[in-house]
Design a protein that fits this description.
548 residues, 5-stranded parallel beta sheet, 9-stranded mixed beta sheet, ATP-dep_AMP-bd_enzyme, Rossmann fold, single chain, GMP Synthetase, Chain A, domain 3, alpha/beta, 3 domains
């Protein structure tokens, strides 16, 4: 297996330790210590089940020991594709306890994404639900079993049926067999990046760097043992995990309530029932909650903070949060690669509604550069580059992406931002061919590749279009082959059959007779995407003028 590592330059690593950012904490120790300190206090609420810190820790340790008894070894990589259920945390913390490496996937991922993640991570195990939202994950695992040579263990949270896979509930072992805690600077887990091209890249995060973000996020977001965090976004997503998310709530000894649906009709009663104090949404859901709250007038007096992140939240919508929901808005702008920015709870209203916050750490170093790589003055848009005590220095096994994404010891995020003199950032959009649809980062190139696989498609170009609800929507321009007549519904059906996540299916499909070419006779896809995007925006502006 290719080794997992995330190496920080020695001078910076020494500085981060000296300043107390890295304290040598590890994830196995974190849960053990919380169980000792908070014992019978509620860690998790799921439907009518309440799980204490002590019970959560014991379940994780016994599961981790059970994995060792099954023949897995410390250092093995295991992909987790579970939704918002207690089993997610049993699996993740069980893997930590056993010295194994969780690889986080999303419930929406299908065969294309899961096969890629298993192969690229060299995972030997896969943990799935039996069924969720009408989808049978066991059938997916059965397909992967035959095509991923390294896959040796499939564990089902639920009923394995006739698959022969292991039932998660039956995996049990003696915690005395667990290994010693790992090196705090070793890789704790692999997250996924949206990627600017192709399928997701793998992001190695260390115990030291990630736990620092949990500690500081919990502090910045005002979490205490009396806080109640509602998770309605997928718990395998970095935002829901650490900003402050579920892991940040556990760090603070707070309670995590697992929501089965983010829609207002489900979430509002849950907030009232459990006394939720803080929750996190992406902008489309925040708009849905605001509209519903204006109609329903829900009684949710305990809600103190609504976080909105994953994509830019327009200021006009941001201004509605406090008067409509009666709570403080906290904007969050971050990335699984590291850098996280928050508006602070005591910021003035204008800062809260017009910026996406400032970094966690005093040692988050920010560069805002023009196209030539020259720093721009504050107040001027530019490319965001960053480094710091929790921003990675490289993807796993991605030399090409690393060459593109890391410059002079800084990570190039792909975002265009404006920095104020006080360090607050306002996000202007994406610099590359990368679509941020409702918080999911999608490669235009990947969507194009799926469209081009259709026998009736000669060429396809995919662009991002600003959208009031989604942040950005996916618009595909398709040139059919000569003599072919295509319909959008046909192409969407074809893409779904390729077993990709539903959020990658184009929202809009436009058919064209051809695309422009450069002076040397080749299509410059980046220029073409920019040109087509401008045409759509011009069309929409003209339509608005006609209806005004």
């Amino acid at each position: 297996m290719k080794p997992l590592e995330q190496i920080f330059p020695a001078e910076r690593a020494a500085r981060y330790r000296e300043k107390g950012y890295w304290t040598g904490e590890t994830f196995p120790a974190l849960l053990r210590e919380r169980a000792e300190r908070f014992g019978d206090r509620t860690a998790l609420v799921h439907r009518d089940t309440r799980i204490s810190y002590a019970r959560m820790a014991e379940a994780a340790q016994r599961f981790g020991a059970g994995l060792l008894a099954q023949g897995l070894k410390p250092g093995d990589r295991v992909l987790i594709q579970l939704g918002n259920t207690p089993e997610f945390f049993t699996a993740a913390f069980g893997l930590f306890a056993a010295g194994m490496i969780p690889v986080y996937a999303l419930p929406a991922h299908r065969r294309t994404e899961i096969e890629h993640l298993l192969t690229r991570s060299e995972a030997c195990g896969l943990i799935i639900p039996d069924k969720a939202d009408g989808y049978d994950y066991r059938a997916l695992a059965a397909e992967l079993w035959d095509v991923v040579p390294g896959l040796k263990h499939v564990i089902v949270a639920g009923d394995p049926a006739e698959t022969g896979f292991a039932a998660m509930a039956e995996i049990d072992g003696d915690p005395a067999t667990l290994p010693e805690d790992p090196d705090p600077q070793s890789v704790a887990f692999l997250q996924i990046s949206g990627g600017s091209t192709g399928l997701s890249k793998l992001i190695p995060r260390t115990h030291d760097d990630y736990i620092y973000t949990l500690r500081e996020s919990a502090r910045i977001c005002g979490l205490t043992p009396d806080s109640v965090f509602l998770a309605v976004l997928p718990v395998g997503h970095n935002f829901t995990m650490s900003s402050p998310g579920t892991y940040g709530a556990f760090y603070a000894g707070a309670t995590v309530v697992l929501g089965h649906s983010p829609v207002p009709d489900a979430a509002f009663p849950l907030i009232a029932k459990e006394g939720v104090t803080i929750t996190a949404l992406v902008p489309p859901l925040a708009l849905l909650w605001l509209d519903a709250a204006e109609r329903l007038k829900p009684e949710i007096p305990t809600l103190e903070v609504l976080q909105v992140g994953g994509a830019k939240f327009l200021s006009e919508s941001a201004r509605r949060v406090k008067p409509v929901l009666g709570c403080t808005l906290q904007q969050v702008f971050g990335m699984a690669e590291g850098l996280v920015n928050y508006t602070r709870l005591d910021d003035d209203e204008e800062t809260i509604v017009t910026t996406q916050g400032r970094p966690i750490s005093p040692d988050d170093e920010i560069l805002v550069l023009d196209d030539a790589g020259t720093p721009v003055p504050d107040g001027t848009p530019g490319h965001l580059l960053t480094r710091g005590p929790y921003t990675i220095n490289g993807y796993h096994d991605e030399p090409g992406a690393n060459a593109r994404s890391f410059e002079n010891d800084h990570y190039r995020s792909g975002d265009i931002v404006i920095r104020r003199a006080d360090g607050y950032l306002t996000v202007q959009g994406r610099a590359g061919d990368h679509i941020n649809r409702a918080g999911e980062k999608i490669s235009a190139e990947e969507v194009e590749d799926h469209l081009l696989a259709h026998p009736g498609v000669f060429d396809a170009v995919v662009v991002s279009i600003p959208d009031a609800h989604l942040g950005e929507r996916i618009c595909a321009f398709v040139k059919p082959r000569d003599g072919q007549t295509l319909k959008p519904v046909e192409l969407r059906k074809f893409m779904r059959a390729r077993q990709i996540a539903a959020f990658k299916i184009p929202d809009e499909i436009r058919f064209v007779d051809g695309f422009g070419i450069t002076a040397v006779g080749k299509i410059s896809r980046r220029q073409l995407r920019s040109q087509l995007r401008a045409e759509v925006l011009a069309d929409e502006a003209a339509q608005q003028e006609q209806t005004a």
